[in-house]
Design brief:
Blueprint (H helix, E strand, L loop, with lengths): L4 E2 L6 E3 L1 H6 L14 E6 L5 E14 L6 E10 L14 E3 L9 E4 L6 E4 L4 E2 L5 E2 L6 E2 L9 E4 L9 E4 L5 E3 L1 E5 L4 E4 L4 E3 L6 E7 L2 E3 L3 E3 L3 E5 L5 E4 L3 E2 L4 E5 L3 E4 L3 E7 L2 E5 L9 E8 L7 E4 L4 E4 L5 H16 L8 E3 L1 H8 L7 E7 L8 E2 L2 E2 L5 E7 L11 H10 L20 H9 L26 H9 L1
Parallel strand pairs: 1-6, 2-5, 10-13, 12-15, 13-16, 14-17, 15-18, 16-19, 17-20, 18-21, 19-22, 20-23, 21-24, 22-25, 24-26, 25-27, 26-28, 27-29, 28-30, 29-31
Antiparallel strand pairs: 2-6, 3-4, 4-5, 7-8, 9-11, 30-35, 32-35, 33-34
């Protein structure tokens, strides 16, 4: 427990290096913790310093009416001189970013100084209702940049609730869910996420909740599902434009697809729900799966496709994808962290099905530079992924001569990728990859996302002819 300064002029909250060390954040010394973000701070004389920032799990403040707790709190790590003594540093400063959902009364009279905090803005109805009805909200109906829509446990509510986003929709900076009973947020109106600084937030502290209303993300949006047992399902279209979706927490974020400038999976799982069509590809500019050398996040592509526009170095991006796939592949069980597939895991668990499925990937220019990928426009430098059959090097949905030729051209060499014949993501094209092609020769990928319009590969060659042909080539 520390004495923090309350500063109505501070837009963000701050902790000192000593406080950071007490809660397990070490920005220096032998075990530095990489910052979650950095902020440029301007000082006296126009000097600018890059200050590290962190998201701390929880922050508690003791009040006469009981404790107030915030979760996933952004703080800057900065030593500020203690004005009370003129020496040492303030343990922390509470910024106004923590009080955007409350009314404040500040009494600066030295005889009776106090800060009064109103109850939290929140949904108050007990049986569902319309967002536009102010009577359904405690204190104020949230609609505006930086406002917060909190779906907690209203007094008297004992079951799930359905909230209808009516009219033209509403704008908020934060959506928060904290209730063991499910909230279902339906349209037809659109929820727009917008903040004046930093990231918009969608936080799930407890329970499983669903957003069916269309969503527009006008800022990078951090989605934190704290508990491993919790799932947030977003079944509607999400229009993020060039903005990023950042997934944090141990729980699961289910999405129909991902259309965003970037997708970062820092923890838990991002699960792409089965769509069963050939026009349901996700499309993002960049992909990041956090956790360092030991991955802690999962992108479950299920039975879907994805295009990565790829703004970075091609080989680096492809190598990252191969690393994440190798981890998700988990020696054939498809249940590891990284990029995995619950659909492929189901097939792998079925010992009676010898036609294994996988997530294949390719540089678009290496497989004919298609103009679209499952309904999404792509370019020759895009990295394309899809749920397909093991051995399908060119991602056309079946195994045939084109796939064998790719493997034969690279047999016995390292540093290769799926579209060059590396079917188990180890970077080497060898007999293990040949076995994948031989096992699935002439077979087609499962029907749910079959491309259909592509020309089938020749499948008349018998599998027994593969090995002699391959080794004749190598002589």
């Amino acid at each position: 427990q520390q004495d923090f300064v309350f500063d109505t002029g501070a837009q963000v909250s701050i902790i000192s290096e000593d406080t950071a060390a007490q809660i397990g954040i070490f920005d220096g010394g032998e075990n530095p913790t990489p910052p979650d973000f950095t902020v440029e701070v301007s000082g006296v004389g126009g000097t600018t310093t890059e200050v590290p920032g962190f998201y701390i799990n929880s922050l508690n403040v003791v009040t006469n009416g009981g404790p107030i707790t915030w979760t996933h709190v952004p703080v800057l790590l900065l030593n500020v001189l203690d004005p009370r003594t003129g020496s040492g540093f303030v343990p922390g400063i509470l910024g106004m970013n923590l009080f955007g959902d409350r009314d404040l009364i500040v009494n600066a009279d030295t005889n009776n100084p106090f800060v009064g905090l109103s109850p939290q803005w929140a949904w108050a109805a007990t049986n569902g209702g319309s967002w536009s009805n102010a009577a359904n909200w405690k204190l104020v109906l949230p609609n505006g940049i930086d406002t917060q829509a909190n779906f907690l446990t209203p007094t008297g509510a004992t079951g799930p609730q359905t909230v209808t986003v009516d009219g033209g929709g509403f704008t908020v900076g934060t959506l928060a869910f904290d209730n063991v009973n499910r909230y279902t947020i339906n349209g037809p109106g659109t929820i727009t996420m917008q903040v004046s600084v930093d990231q918009a937030q969608i936080n799930v502290s407890t329970g499983n909740h669903t957003i069916n209303a269309p969503m527009t993300l006008l800022n990078d949006t951090d989605v934190t599902v704290s508990l491993a047992s919790s799932t947030l399902t977003i079944s509607s279209d999400v229009n993020a434009g060039t903005n990023a979706v950042i997934k944090d927490g141990l729980g699961t974020l289910e999405m129909k697809n991902v259309r965003a400038g970037g997708l970062s999976v820092n923890g838990g799982t991002v699960f792409i729900t089965a769509n069963g069509t050939s026009t349901g590809a996700s499309r993002i500019t960049t992909l990041s799966i956090g956790g360092g050398s030991i991955l802690t996040g999962k992108l479950d592509l299920n039975n879907n496709a994805m295009a990565i526009d790829n703004t970075g170095t091609l080989n680096t991006a492809a190598t990252d994808v191969r690393t994440w796939l190798a981890s998700g592949f988990a020696s054939g069980s498809w249940n590891g962290n990284g990029i995995m597939s619950s659909a492929a895991a189901t097939v792998a668990a079925n010992s009676g099905n010898i036609h294994k499925t996988a997530i294949g990937f390719a540089l678009a220019s290496s497989i004919g530079s298609p103009a679209t990928w499952f309904g999404q426009g792509v370019n020759p430098t895009s990295i394309l992924m899809r749920y397909t059959i093991d051995g399908d090097a060119d991602l056309n949905g079946q195994v045939g001569m084109t796939d064998f030729n790719a493997l034969a051209a690279n047999f016995g060499t390292g540093g290769k990728f799926w579209w060059q014949g590396d079917m188990n993501y180890d970077g080497v094209v060898n007999v293990l990859d040949l076995n994948a092609i031989a096992t699935n020769w002439g077979q087609a990928a499962p029907a749910p996302i079959a491309l259909g319009a592509l020309v089938p590969e020749p499948g008349s060659m018998l599998c027994v002819g593969l090995i002699p042909l391959l080794f004749r080539r190598r002589r």
